[in-house]
């Protein structure tokens, strides 16, 4: 069993996908899964099928960041490799990620390239500083290799954030605490995206995403750049979502009406200082 890294997943009604991705991973790696749906049958099935897998069921749906924090509390290896469930993993890429750490002893987070995702220029602090390694300001959070101890000492993810902007917030705090974030320019993962949850829950999850994207947008920008900057980021979205909610209500398009209602309520609750309370209404 590989002793330097534990692979971490956060799942939520992702039974089909998680089994598929585990089969792409060499059995020498320890895998820890935080199952936010609280479905005990998922735990029983996965632990029975895969000898290298442990599943933890939290007391409540914690969202991504809080679930990662729970995972980190139960991991003692030097590194933790967080993987999104909706990835395609090429043979050898996990090993390449681990090998890359040998020349980066000062890293707090290491990420690969994500196929079909282009990093903005302002995400970089220093591009290609050596051996196709770049120092980063912000990252895509689909694949993250953590120095477990450093991220624990930082306090992990901000648990006020249920969904969206959690990795940006973590990066901001890493930079402020002089912790280095790197990206390899020669290792790539394919992130399918928006497909980690069973299709039958699609409508409710879409409402959840819209509420939290808006809530987290204001929260993140206010936290790191101040109240007025946060307001400037959501000003147009606030009024746009309100008027679109009215419009789609009039023409009786219930799907879009509900989406813009959730966007409006997400912004409103965030501006009013309310907690990120909305959760998907899904019964097991």
Overview of this structure, please?
This protein is α/β, with parallel strands linked by helices and 284 residues long. 43% of the residues lie in helices and 21% in strands. It is built from 9 helices and 10 strands. Strands 1, 2, 3, 4, 5, 6, 7, 8, 9 and 10 form a 10-stranded mixed sheet that branches. Helix 7 (202-225) packs antiparallel against helix 8 (227-250), helix 7 runs parallel beside helix 9 and helix 8 (227-250) packs antiparallel against helix 9. The longest helix is centred in the C-terminal third of the chain and has 24 residues, at 202-225. The chain is globular and about 60 Å long. It starts with a strand and ends in a 13-residue tail after the last helix. The mean pLDDT is 93.
Brief characterization of the structure:
This protein has helices at 15-22, 40-49, 63-73, 93-100, 148-154, 166-176, 202-225, 227-250, 254-271, and strands at residues 5-11, 30-35, 53-56, 79-83, 87-88, 107-115, 124-130, 133-136, 143-147, 180-191. The chain has 284 residues and is of the alpha/beta class.
Brief descriptors of the model:
single chain; alpha/beta; 10-stranded mixed sheet; 43% helix
Helices and strands, with pairings:
Layout (H helix, E strand, L loop, with lengths): L4 E7 L3 H8 L7 E6 L4 H10 L3 E4 L6 H11 L5 E5 L3 E2 L4 H8 L6 E9 L8 E7 L2 E4 L6 E5 H7 L11 H11 L3 E12 L10 H24 L1 H24 L3 H18 L13
Parallel strand pairs: 1-2, 1-4, 2-3, 6-10
Antiparallel strand pairs: 4-9, 5-10, 6-9, 7-8, 8-10
Helix pairs in contact: 7-8, 7-9, 8-9
